[in-house]
Amino acid sequence: MTTIQVFDPASCCSSGVCGSDVDQELVGFSADVDWVKQRDVAIERFNLAQQPMAFADNSTVKAFLERSGAEALPLILVDGEVALAGRYPQRSELARWAGIPLQEEVEESSCCGGCC
Amino acid sequence: MTKLKFLNQPPRFLFFTGKGGVGKTSLACATAITLADADQRVLLVSTDPASNVGQVFGITIGNQVTAITSVPHLAALEIDPQAAAQAYRDRIVGPVRGVLPDTVVKGIEEQLSGACTTEIAAFDEFTALLTDSVLTADYDHIIFDTAPTGHTIRLLQLPGAWSDFLAEGKGDASCLGPLAGLEKQRAQYKAAVDALADSQRTRLVLVARAQQATLREVARTHEELAAIGLTKQFLVINGLFPQAETAQDPLATAIFQREQNALAAIPEALSQLPCDHIVLKPFNLVGLTALRKLLVDDLPVDGENKSNHHAIQFPSLSSLTDEIAKDGCGLIMLMGKGGVGKTTLAAAIAVNLAHRGLPVHLTTSDPAAHLSETLSGTMDNLLVDRIDPHVETERYRQHVLETKGSHLDAQGRALLEEDLRSPCTEEIAVFQAFSRIIREAGKKFVVMDTAPTGHTLLLLDATGAYHREVIKQMDPSIVHYSTPMMQLQNPKQTKILLVTLAETTPVLEAANLQADLRRAGIEPWAWIINNSVAARTVHSPLLCQRASNELADIKTVSTIHAKRYAVVPLLQEEPIGVHRLLNLLRSSQ
Q1: Do B119 and B262 sit in the same domain of this protein?
Q2: Which one of B60, B232, B409, B578 is separated from A114 by 20 to 30 angstroms, measured CA to CA?
Q3: Does B348 lie in the same domain as B285?
Q4: Residue B296 has pLDDT above 60, yes or no
């Protein structure tokens, strides 16, 4: 079974309201994470400010941070391999990686609220 | 034993709250002594970094319960919120230091350096004291010289805040994020919050001075805490100027009158509360004897006190303004805690620059709007406008809720709403409104009565740095992209003036603001010590006493903290209108 791991940039608030203006993308992505979770896909998120050890313990993630810095997050690993970096995936990408059908009747995630 | 209302049949927990410098710690100490003298077993808990509770009692206390041998039945404990927050940061960051790149580690530390982290870390230290533990079983009363803010308590009450990360040790966090790294169980936090909201067990004493701005602020605190269940509240007006002192001293008369006017116009929310007045004492509140006398009324004025103080010459605001004027343009930001007079001083500097024929845009967040209204359109070269912090914050809240909150469920939305009530949110909203005007500072003077903290700037600049990279990648020819942060770091473009009062706690608070700005690579240009009595000639013994007390604080500022400084004397009349504002700079007598 596929495991998806999401390494988020540091933020003291998930909403980002205390700090930098987090993209609408992030809110849409959180909804997408719930969507794949409901389909029994193993997906995990780690926040750099709260679980830095998870970043340090994973050699792929650690090397990524050394090469590209925290600014290049988020980083998405699928079964331990880099699948995407620098932006959050679309729901369709999550579905493809997890090998589940993207049901058309389910509301599409609404990215690109002017931020992209 | 006393006729003070807040001391009448006190419950187990007593909290003193109010802004820095109003005398919370002195009152807490005096209350603890009074109760201990009445054979109650008392634990005094201080979180005031300037408290010197140990010094007051002549012993070292620190972060453990220590018996005060000079007062039977009394023990004390000092909590340092900054140290608690640091310990928390070390727990999270320590294991990855040297493992992850330094820049990454620094970024994480900054995320955990906000006021929220300090608040929550301090509350964590309280928790054990509020829940019946072995630690407190021996005491009848536990007295705190501070209280958690409404924001902290509400967060702890929200089920949504807890659902993920405390149960599972992860998930998305809010301002409560810091709690994720704290060890206590949710049940314990809940018990602590319940104890706070229980009027049988907890009494909240709001401490204020008889000043309009201070009373307004206290009224807000009262309403906020009452709304979440802390209904048992008392009000203490501390340090009231006695009428007996007003003879033959016009400044003393003016102070007395100003205080009486403030009391007469007390916000309605406060007028219903049981209220005690404590008269300003002609002695320093250090040592047992002095503290025992604080809560006793009608003391005769001590005959030993001086009744003559001659105005001391300090560097004046006028010479600071001369230096500012030389540059011809730039951004001038006044920064400091509420109630120190930032708005008035910003207006005085703006009016003075405009008077010299220089173009000035004054922007204030003046809550009362008096000043901006009286100045608008009265002078050539001077443009005045006002940003209402509440309006800006509300607009920002609505924007975030509509754009980012639309997908959230009820719990997630409640949490986002509470995050949006954090002090950071207001700061960001106001700063965003101000930053529209900042750009003008290349051509004229822009004077503002507020500035963002270093923490906010560092967080905001995280996106600034990112966007800079993006723009560079898109078009390598753009090299002169500059963020507000870069403008604020450049002393040629921006001067930050720290405003404080010549009192221990306000000076310490200003020094903390300075340290925070330095973390963001910003060096405050000067300090202004406002409302100084030492800079005036006075005859009232109380004012002479205050003048001599100020000297140590002014010395600390001039020798330790400030690159350059100015002292503005306490004025007899409120400096409203162009004429009086111009005089404010000149009147360094």
Answers
A1: yes
A2: B409
A3: no
A4: yes
* Same structural domain, B347 and B286: no
For B93-114, the pLDDT digits (tens) are 888 999 999 888 888 888 788 7
Look at B92 and A13 and tell me if their CB atoms are within 8 Å: no
Cis peptide leading into A74, omega within 30 of 0?
yes
Catalytic residues of B: 21, 23-26, 48, 505
Chain-chain contact of A12 with B466 (C-beta, under 8 angstroms)? no
Contact A18 B428 (CB under 8 A): yes
Helices then strands, counting H and E runs in chain A, come out as 4, 4
Q: Are strands A75-78 and A81-85 parallel, antiparallel or unpaired?
A: antiparallel
Domain A3-98: top CATH class: alpha beta
Q: What is the CATH number for B272?
A: 3.40.50.300
Among B404, B424, B428, B485, most A C-beta atoms within 10 A, so best to mutate, is B404
Is B458:B429 a contact under the CB 8 Å cutoff? no
Task: Tell the residue number behind the tokens 């187990």, with chain if given.
Answer: B12
Dist. CA B334–CA B583, nearest whole Å: 19
Return the minimum-mean-pLDDT range out of B273-277, B324-328, B466-470, B525-529.
Answer: B466-470
B108–A12: do the CB atoms touch at under 8 Å?
no
ipTM confidence: 0.76
Q: Is residue B310 part of a domain?
A: no
**Dihedral angle at the C-alpha atoms of B111, B113, B116, B117, nearest 10 degrees?**
100
> Minimum mean pLDDT among B279-293, B351-365, B494-508, B526-540: which range?
B279-293
What per-residue confidence (pLDDT) applies to B588?
52
Within the 84-113 window of chain B, which residues sit less than 8 Å (CB to CB) from chain A? Answer: 92-93, 95-96, 99-101, 103-105, 107-108, 111-112
Would you place residue A19 in the very low, low, confident or very high pLDDT band (cuts 50, 70, 90)?
A: very low
Cβ density class B204-232: b for 16+ within 10 Å, e for less: bbbbbbbbbbbbbbbbebbebbbeebbeb
H-type alpha helices, B208-310:
212-227, 250-264, 268-271, 288-294
Tally of structural domains, chain B: 2
Q: Name B500's bridge partners.
A: B529
Domain boundary among the residues B277, B293, B309 is at B293
> pLDDT tens digit string along B357-383?
999 999 988 776 677 667 867 788 999
**Token pair for B180:** 């994720």
Render B9-27 in DSSP notation, one character per residue.
S--SEEEEE-STTSSHHHH
Contacts of residue B269, defined as CB under 8 A and 6 or more positions apart, other chains included, come to: B219, B222, B223
My answer on whether B223 and B358 are in the same domain is no
Q: Is B465 on the interface with A (CB under 8 A)?
A: yes
Residues B287 and B342 in one domain: no
Report the alpha-carbon distance of residue A111 to residue B439 in Å, rounded.
Answer: 31
- Written as one string, the DSSP assignment of B318-346 is HHHHHHHHHTSSEEEEEE-STTS-HHHHH
Strands A75-78 and A3-8: antiparallel
Q: What is the pLDDT of residue A59?
A: 95
- For residue B496, the enclosing domain spans 317-392+438-471+483-585
